[in-house]
Amino acid sequence: MTQNQQGQIILLNGASSAGKSTLCRAIQAQIDQPFLQFSLDFFFFRGEVLPDRRDSEGPFSWPVMRPKLFEGYFNCLSGLLDAGNNLVVDYIVETREQLAALVQRLSAFDVFYVGVHCPLEELERRELQRGDRRPGDARMDFQTVHTFSGYDFEVDSTDSPEHNAEKIIAAWKARASSGVFQQLFREFTSS
Ligand SMILES: Nc1ncnc2c1ncn2[C@@H]1O[C@H](COP(=O)(O)OP(=O)(O)OP(=O)(O)O)[C@@H](O)[C@H]1O
Fold it and tell me: Which residues hold ATP (predicted)?
């Protein structure tokens, strides 16, 4: 498959409750090409993928299941892109090692990496209001999620999703041929 037949990915990174999924939907609705939304949330919060039982050890050990789930999810992203699907994806980068794994897996693709910023007070307000997220997760993400790299584009999610989607799509269309993920790939493979 040639380069231009591969799908392209717009990847949003930000804390839990920053408004990433909402923004993915707004991008998907506004963009003039088909983009699939494919989120880890679909495993955790929709559908019936994961067993309810997640223990600290034993046959249902979450510390054993979790890295395999994430690794498989990264494989799904590259599989979908390789088949020619464009993707708009939200993710919460938790560690530099996790970012390195994502960069490695997406190294062959056109990745547009977007930082979704939101003030802590607003994150916590949203987290409390939605009621389906563990209180404290947003604060924990807030302290680390934007510390691992720069971005191709950044937005403030206190602005409306529609306006941010418009800005992201315009920036994506005007993007440079080599983005932050390609720089990161060089960094990670040379260190
Ligand atoms: N621009 C916005 N202004 C006000 N509220 C918003 C905005 N964007 C999203 N929200 C609300 O914030 C909550 C979290 O949004 P969303 O599910 O998009 O966040 P998320 O970053 O994908 O979260 P998670 O990573 O936990 O899945 C939702 O209740 C959503 O309606």
Answer: 14-21
3-state SS, one letter per residue, for the chain: CCHHHCCEEEEEECCCCCCHHHHHHHHHHHCCCCCEECCCHHHHCCCCCCCCCCECCCCCEHHHHHHHHHHHHHHHHHHHHHCCCCEEEEECCCCHHHHHHHHHHCCCCEEEEEEEECCHHHHHHHHHHHCCCCCCHHHHHHHHCCCCCCCCEEEECCCCHHHHHHHHHHHHHCCCCCCHHHHHHHHHHHC
Task: Please give the distance, rounded to the nearest whole angstrom, from the Cα atom of residue 21 to the centre of ligand 1.
Answer: 7
Residue range 62-78, pLDDT digits in tens: 999 999 999 999 999 99
Where does 3-190 sit in CATH, by number?
3.40.50.300
Catalytic residue from among 41, 82, 137, 156: 41
Residue ranges covered by each domain of the chain: 3-190
Nearest-atom number in ligand 1 for the CA of 25 is 18
Asked if this assembly's ipTM is beyond 0.85, the reply is: yes
Q: What is the pLDDT of residues 147-175, one digit of tens each?
A: 999 999 999 999 999 999 999 999 999 99
| pLDDT at 177 > cutoff 70 | yes
Point out the ligand 1 atom lying closest to the alpha carbon of residue 45. Answer: 27
Q: Is 82 a catalytic residue?
A: no
